[in-house]
Amino acid sequence: MTVTANNLDKRAHIMADCARLFRKLGYHGTAMSDIADAVKLNKGTLYYYFPSKTDILFAIYQEALQRLDENINMIVPGLPPDEELAAYVKAILRTIASVPDVIAVYFQEQPWRESALPAEQSAMIRAKEAEFTDRIRTMIKDGMRTNVFRRVNEDLLTIQLLAMISSLNRWHLIQGQASADLIADTIVAYLYEGIVSRH
């Protein structure tokens, strides 16, 4: 496919429609004919933009990670560990608020991702997830090192924090950026009650 601005825009619209469809029917429950009907294209034209359903799923994962990257890159560098962690949580929730269908599919299809995507694509996603996870773990460790946080198991806390955040999309609790910021503040308040050092 020749890459043009129009093609990229059309791909983005198809991907967004597919995210809504996958969220409703599941990736494995959606056929290319379902997608063609939903986006009002014949299958030949659809294959021009996305040669396979796997390509659509990978595009959805890429979109989620790119949006998260963009929000994280807006965090002011050099913040104290507690403020950086709060900003990081807010960035994740703003990402969920901005593309809820994309994020829903991201988590919904995670158990089957390894079998659905080629090994190289799965490895790229795992590497990016590890980068995000390591950054949270590093913030927690920096907070403990500087006595902002009390001593905790940073691996367990990182997993708990990410699990808490990922579950919010499932319950449709995030309705827009203001809601995302409010929920982020609440999560951070609960978190700090348990880990902020009292010295």
Automatic annotation (TrEMBL):
GO molecular function list: DNA-binding transcription factor activity; transcription cis-regulatory region binding
Domain spans labelled HTH tetR-type: 8-68
Database matches in InterPro entries: Homeodomain-like_sf, HTH-type_TetR-like_transc_reg, HTH_TetR, KstR2_TetR_C, Tet_transcr_reg_TetR-rel_C_sf
Sorted UniProt keywords: DNA-binding, Repressor, Transcription, Transcription regulation
Start-end of DNA-binding region: 31-50
Superkingdom in the source lineage: Bacteria
PROSITE patterns, A to Z: HTH_TETR_2
Pfam families listed in its UniProt record: TetR_C_24, TetR_N
Protein name: TetR/AcrR family transcriptional regulator
Organism: Mycolicibacter kumamotonensis
Taxonomic placement: Bacteria, Bacillati, Actinomycetota, Actinomycetes, Mycobacteriales
